[in-house]
Amino acid sequence: MNKYISLSLEELSKEATAYFMRHRMNGGASEFDSSINDISRAIIHAFHLEHGKCFLGKVNLYDKERENITEYQFTVYSGQLVYNFEYAFVIPRPDEELLRLIIEHNLPKETFNSQDTWNRVKQIFTRIEQIGGVSLTWS
Prior knowledge:
A 4-stranded antiparallel β-sheet has the order 2-1-3-4, with helices on both faces. The longest helix is centred in the first third of the chain and has 17 residues, at 35-51. It has helices at residues 9-23, 35-51, 63-67, 96-106, 114-130; strands at residues 54-57, 75-77, 89-91, 134-135. It has one domain (9-135). It starts with 8 loop residues before the first helix and ends with a strand. Helix 1 packs antiparallel against helix 2 and helix 4 runs antiparallel to helix 5. The protein is globular. It is of the alpha+beta class. It contains 5 helices and 4 strands; from the N terminus they run H-H-E-H-E-E-H-H-E.
């Protein structure tokens, strides 16, 4: 059982910060301390309880999602198992602007420009924050 599951979003934010502070001197998240995975799952659960409904999303799309990019949608969370690295964020409701940013980020490009890519990723996470969403972290 996830020991973080009964904590509030505020308490979980503090736990995540404590996790990063513990591992900051060795480069960040540690594959040997996977508690951040439990914290992220608990964040999803707490977010769902607080909002009554929530949606999970990805920034980078692969395989069939990328092949059918215009059909990509956020995933309704209904208590299902969430795998490590499966989702990058949780939001209270679908958001057309966020969806557009993610789809544009994943469209094929003629040339790769790292600055453009970085700017788009920043726009995505800024939008997540603007609509009251939370980023998830995995190890």
